[in-house]
Amino acid sequence: MPAGLVALALGSFGIGLTEFVIAGLLPQVGHDLDVSEAAAGWLISGYALSVAIGAILLTAATTRIHRKAVLVGLVVLFVLGNLLSAVAPTYTVALLGRVVAALCHGSFFGIGSLVARRMVPPERASRAVAVMFAGLTVANVLGVPFGALVGERFGWRATFWAVTGIGVLALAAIAVWVPAWAGAVDEAHRTAGLRPQLRAFRSRQVWLTLAATALGYGGMFGAFSYIAYTFTEVTGFSSTDVAWLLVVYGGGLVIGNVAGGRAADLDRDRTLIASLAGLAVTLAAFGVLAEGRAASVVLVFLMGVFGFAAVPGMITRVTDAAGGAPLAASANVSASNVGNALGAWLGGLAISAGLGYTAPLYVGAAVVALGLAVMVITARTGPVAAPPPVGPHQDPRPTTSRPGSRR
What we know:
With 407 residues, this protein is mostly helical. It is 78% helix and 0% strand.
């Protein structure tokens, strides 16, 4: 495995930790900064909105800049944002720190996925993206318990100091381990700038893949947003059990990410269709069997597996459909966040309508089923292959190979 992929995974781990860690700290932060629960919740909502906006704007603004330099700059932004939250004297400054840290999120995953692909042979592209996203999935498992543990022992500011330190390590790793040739911008993109990337959005395949991404994510996270209520109010678990149940879910994310990346390199569209179909069935079955403890544990694990198995393939598919445009990869991250917001809203409406705490599972299954239909149409109307490389997509140095090497 190229060391550059490990560096990108470390960066994604830090960014994922920032996203998830706040959930276990909200009571402390709200109390210390003297704000209401609703105001404290904006430390999560504000982050998500900043991700969706920053993914597009920062990628568009940096289209002609060497991609390794952009990644380094994005991690610097991440470090500064978390540092600002760590020292924040007021709620406003803490929120500003969250917004600043979130700006790098979408662009890092969008641009980083393109750099990751260049470090491996084309037939391993989805696996390379999966390695980078592995940091995010591990952060999902560790984020909340890590934040709660450090915050409980040393205060919530210590958690942000720790995340800042991880950001500094990721910055050094990317600067040293990611090869410059992997981040080179081909001549066509450098001279043409943003215009050809915007033209890529004329492609029906780009929009259909983005729609499938938004619906797939929306269904899963719409159900996941209220999963704690399902566990405690329907299944009968105690509130203290929720933490380890979320770890089970996170374990499913890790396995799904790895398996999905490998499968997508063999047959991407079939993998995406199978992942979405598996997720829709899992969510519907969860709604039916939610009162059973053993079934709930198994199903929340499968929810993670199928939910993240589609991620590497969706990223590579949308960038291939867009001719390798970084803006499309970042738009995929924005689409997933829009889907998250939509799914959570629909799940909340179902609960407010008095349909019970299993309702978000059924709503999620319906949303994912719609995403599955879009994906089937997408695959049948136009299979997408990787575009021919324009400029270096592999190490351009002499290809003197040795036994067992990939070259």
